[in-house]
Design goal:
The protein is an all-beta fold and 413 residues long. It has one helix and 33 strands. The strands form nine sheets. A five-stranded antiparallel beta sheet has the order 29-30-31-32-33, with no helix packed on it. Strands 1-6-7-8 form a four-stranded antiparallel beta sheet, with no helix packed on it. A hairpin with a 7-residue loop joins strand 27 and strand 28. It comes from Basidiobolus meristosporus CBS 931.73.
Amino acid sequence: MPAYERGGRGGGSSGSGGGSHNPGGGMGGGGGMGYSNRMTFDGKSLRKAIQRRTVDYNSSIALGTELRPSLRDHRDLPILRPNPNFIVNLLPTSFHLNNPVDSGATKFWTPEGRRLITGSTSGEFTLWNGLTFNFETILQAHDTAVRAMEWTHNDNWMVTADHSGVIKYWQSNMNNLKVFQGHKEAIRDIAFSPTDVKFATCSDDGTIKIWNFNEGIEEKILTGHGWDVKCVDWHPSKALLASGSKDNLVKLWDPKSGRNLTTLHGHKATVSGIEWNKNGNWLATVARDQMMKVYDIRMMKELQTFRSGKEELSSLSWHPIHERLLATGGSEGSLTYWLIGNDQAVANIDGAHEQNIWSLDWHPVGHIIASGSNDHSTKFWTRERPGDPSEKSDEKPDGLNANEQHWEEGSFI
C-alpha cells in the first residue's frame, strides 16, 4: 500500500504506505511524459520501453499565486470549458472550496509530496516519484509484512509496524534509528498525538498501546475491545483516541487515564477503518457491513450514514482541503467519493482494482489520491481535465499502476 508523507494508514495483506507534504494546495494537470528506458542484462531485454504521464501541480500553484490578489471569490475564477485548451486555467483545489466535487481524484506520500512510499507483504519499502511515477529505490525494511506507516506532524519521522508486532523509527532519508517489539501480534494501525510526543498502536492482540515517542517506552495499555483492534486515530487537536475493532464496536478513549469514554454501536460487522476530520468534530468509520458512518462528537450522534449496497468497505480517507469530501475503498476493488450532505455517492469507479483496496491516501495538495490493493498494485488517480471524456467505455478505469508501471485502459484522470 502506498503513502504520501503526512500520515499514512496501513493494513491489509498488500502492505502499507508512508506519506508526502506540500505547502501549496493545488491540482496539477497532465503535463509531460516520463519514459523508462529498455534495460538489458546478458543480452536479454528485461522490460520494454513504456510511457508514463506526468501530473505536475507546479503550474497550477504558480497561476493561483499570480491570480490570488485579484480574486474576490469563486465567481472570479478562470473559465473552464470541456476543451483541452482550457487545461492551462486549472487552479489548485484550495481555490474550489465552493465545489468540493471538482477535487475528486477518481496512498501515502512523503511530507513534501514529491514521493510516495509503499510497503509490501515481503517487508520492503518502495519509493516512487510523485510527479513522473518512476521507480526510485527499494529497501528491505521489515522481516514480515508491513502493516502500518505514519508520519509525525512535523514531517521529520516515520514510524512503521509489521505483522510480527515490531515497530521501527525512520528519518526522512529512510535511515532506521530505532527498533523494538511493540505487540505480540500484528500491529494494524498507528496514530500520532497532535504534538508528536506520543503515538498509539492497535493490534490483533485486542489492545491499544500509548507510547512515548522520544524514548520508545510503553506508557499505557487500553483494553476493552473483545477482539482484534483493526484501526485507531488520534484527534487532530485533543487528547482523544478513536478505535474500531472486529467486535463491531467503535470506542473513544482518554489516552491520559486510559479510560473508555464511550462506545458507539453503529456497525454490524468488523470496523475496518476510522479517521477524524481535520475540523475535529466529525469521525468517519467504515465496516464490512457495507456502511460508512460519520459521527458528530459534539452531540455524540450519527451525522450521516452512507451505504455502498454492493460490497464491504475496507478503507477511507478525508480530502486534505475540502472537509466535506472523502473517499472509500471496497472489498471488490471499487473506489467511491462521498460528500457530506449528499445521500448518494458523487462518483464511483467500479473495478479500480481487481481485489480489496486496503489503503487510501491523498496527496497533501489534494490533487491526487493513491490506492493500495490486495492485487499487489498501487494506483494514482487525479481529477478530470478540461476536454477529458466524462464516460468511459472500457471495463477498467484508468490510473497509473505503480507496481506494473503502465497506464490501465480507460482512465479517470
